[in-house]
Amino acid sequence: MIGFGPRDRVLRRLPGRVAPLLVLLCLWPAGAVAQPPAVPEHPGQWEFRVAASEDALWLVGLRGGQSVLVRRTATTPFDRGHTANGRVVSMTAVGESVFVFFEQDQHRSFYRYDEKGHPQSDLPGREVPVDMVGARGILYALVPSSTATALSAAGVPTTEPATAPVFDAGDAPLSVVKYDGDDWLPLTPCPDSVGPHASPRLRPRLCPAYGRLRLLWVADQANQIHHARLDSETGRWSVGKPIGVANLTAFWIPLLDGVPTLVTGTEQTPGGETISAYRLLGDWIGEGVPTPRPAELRFSPLLEGVALTRYADAFGFNQHLGVLGTDAAGVAYLRFARIGAEPIEPTVRAEDVLTRPAAAQRTQVSFQIATLVVMVVVLAGLFVFRRRSLANIVPLPPGYVLVLNLRRLGGWLVDFVPFAWAGALLSEIQWLDGLRELAAWGIGTGSEPGHPPAKILMWWAASCTLHTLYMVVMELLAGRTVGKVLTGTRLLAETGTRPASWQILVRNVLRLLELVPQFWILGLLVLLSRNRQRLGDIFARTLVVHRAGPPKRSPDRADRPPRDDDNPPEPPSDPPANFS
Description:
Layout: H1 6-12, H2 18-27, E1 47-52, E2 56-63, E3 66-73, E4 82-85, E5 87-94, E6 97-104, E7 107-113, E8 117-119, E9 131-135, E10 138-144, H3 145-153, E11 174-179, E12 184-189, E13 205-209, E14 212-218, E15 224-230, E16 237-239, E17 243-244, E18 248-252, E19 255-256, E20 259-269, E21 272-279, E22 297-299, E23 308-317, E24 320-327, E25 332-339, E26 348-349, H4 350-385, H5 388-391, E27 400-402, H6 405-427, H7 431-443, H8 454-477, H9 482-487, E28 490-493, H10 501-514, H11 524-528, H12 535-540, E29 542-547
Helix pairs in contact: 2-4, 6-8, 8-10
């Protein structure tokens, strides 16, 4: 029979709830390890596409025969993204999703992406739309009229009346079709003057505004933008007064806070473009409609020495006008502007959006592996050197009892909160937001790979360091901190004496480890230890105690003279010199 030695018997006496905790402590830092995004390794410069709604911004990087799609929302940074085989040739954002047309080896496919990709119904001949937009769960697309006619010839869904007329585009080069998530349906032909443009940046564009579908295009005169409104009941277009823009090189029609905004690129100097925006309020169709005037755009600053010379796209996102532009070297940037107000969104280099999360994720994985190693070392130290402290109750001097956890927590908050609050005030940090960021980083649920912003890390590191130095000085010089005085607690060694200097140093050095977000879970040791010790107390062999109050006199003794055994002697004012 295998026998148990003294240390083995200690293990058998450990509380049953400690073992699951120790397993959790080991798995805690490893559970959040995530794989970095798969970024294509093909050589060559990136190409970029962008699509956005007020709710989400999608950026696509193209290199080789692959596409990397990344998304962010108004409150979250760019995610780790999706890698897809094929090149994105057309895309539009609807809510937090994006609809994408891919092309690979002359084969085209249509997908919807949110958390993952979902294949959709292709257009006849796997045609790619000239332009498409989304409104109220419906996609509207500009396609060659032959494609719209092919949809009609292929038959209509069973939900349509059997007597539905065959679609007739007449002489219109382009027509509008719609997609409800199941089928493509022809809607109406465009005006005859609307056709594909030689420049993709001057192609016809759709815009859903004020409950109506709008169409904008450039015809024979390159410095005029024509526009029309679709009557959904009759299927007819009402054409408005053209908008004149001198030296026009590109135009887009995003929605900013639900208001259609005409964004134009104009050539001002050789090789350079200027962006202007026009708010198209009201109907903007009919006689007497005033010519729109440029709005005051305030752009986010560019990096020093960078100047954008060409713009590839414009979009509305998070109450900002965003543009995708390139400098003279072809480096792409996402830049943001607001009308009449300073932008909140900063300018970012498009390639950094794809590569920084991968680098940050690798750093995070390395940090989590190091955290796991430290956690294993700590737990091994507990079992090898201090496993008796988890099961054995340490005898206390007469007149002292262990402090309740809530009382101990209150004392610690008194000592810590002033440092954290003052640091947050000086750093201009919302301390609750900072704690949320740190907690998400600690458990690996943060939406952004890597660590929290450097400002938050510096605030937390300074608060914890100053707090720890304060604790060391007060416990060495006065034996108690302000929090312990206010809560009536004090520090003792397990021998019942005042702690030695080395014990105070050990318990507070380990406090720095416990304040790292990845090790906050070690605070559960206070709840599970027989002596209500945190990690620093276990290794330093210290206890937090308070004086026990005198026993209450029972009611039957209230009317008789007191006896000597009614009032036991007061505990000594200081702990005895030696106690075991």
